[in-house]
Amino acid sequence: PPLAALINADDFERSFEKYGPRKPWAYITGASNDLLTYDANKTCWHKLWFRPRIMRDVKAITTRTKMLGQEVTMPLLIAPMGIAKTAGDEGELALGAGAARGGIIHVQSTAASFSVEDILAAVPKTHPYFFQLYVDRNRKKTEELLQRLETMDQIKAIFVTVDLPVVSKREADERVLEEQKVSLYSGDGVTNKPDKKGGGLARTTGGFIEWQLTWNDLPWIKRFTSKPIVIKGIQTAADAKLALELGCAGIVVSNHGGRALDNAPATLLSLLEIRRDCPEVFTRMEVYVDGGVRRGSDILKAVMIGAQGVGVGRPFQCAVAYNTNGVEHLCDIFQDELETAMRLCGVTDLNKVRGDMQYLNTSELD
Ligand code: FNR
């Protein structure tokens, strides 16, 4: 369908399901085992209701904010996703260029289809970038990668993903027995070893991820980078506290979009647990959340709980089928939905309602 016919984030996934190739569709939209965490991520946002305030002047509003010191048009990240060429030939080049047009930041995956140099070349020089790091079992490779990134001023932070020490069982991805042709999709970070456990693209490309990574390795990572470190994949207040104590700049509350441990809690529940048990995390670090965010109103909810911003994954990967224009169009949709939700809630500046739970009713989640 023409891009203009796509009017919300789910439309991008539905369109890819209908018209996209089977194997990439199974890889991109799939999740672990019984999809319990995948489903819960979404339905929890649906159960969080607003307490709108009325009769306020909502003509002039702003969605602008900062992420790790970087100015953005709205608090939305394109979550890191591997091998974006599965969705379209431009892959991460479209994600980067589309994010720049939308004024938001793309977090590039270690497992990208292009090298970081090629991706940055597709983005205006002044536009900030974040890099997602999977530590390699061959630690020398990680050291070299971090040293390479250290020379790139455009990359403003390193997001270290920690929720996937082993790639999980993704049954849709394993059932579609199309020839894998991983080499078609892979950039310099991707290992390409066929996996004995099923035929999933995820298990084929993710076999390099270090499974012996611990909190004690943070000083080792810091030796090779001066950029702020954000831990992606925090799911409990206890771990959020550890990240804070160890001097991280931020965390992403994430369960990998339901693609890691099935029956892990919905990220909204983890976010609320951290707020309840360790509220200082929100004032002393930047807290991000991803998983099932599909509406501008979900962004507003996350900010009201105290998040600095949210990440969105699958819909953006599916937007790559429409190249840069698709990614930009999805940014526009989120921008419009966020502004509309703010006005209808009586909110004119996100930075004034961050952490202000008086706008939220959590009774269906209690
Ligand atoms: C991911 N995710 C991910 N995370 C990461 O840190 N490094 C990666 O390489 C990938 N790869 C990846 C590929 C694909 C196709 C998907 C869908 C996801 C997880 C991603 O960053 C994010 O946590 C979730 O996608 C958020 O959930 P939603 O928005 O997709 O529901």
From TrEMBL:
Transmembrane segments: none annotated. Residues 1-363 form the FMN hydroxy acid dehydrogenase domain. Its cofactor is FMN. Signal peptide: none annotated. Keywords: Oxidoreductase. The keyword Ligase does not apply. This is FMN-dependent dehydrogenase-domain-containing protein. One of its GO terms (molecular function) is oxidoreductase activity. The chain holds residues 109 to 474 of 493 of the full protein. The keyword Manganese does not apply.
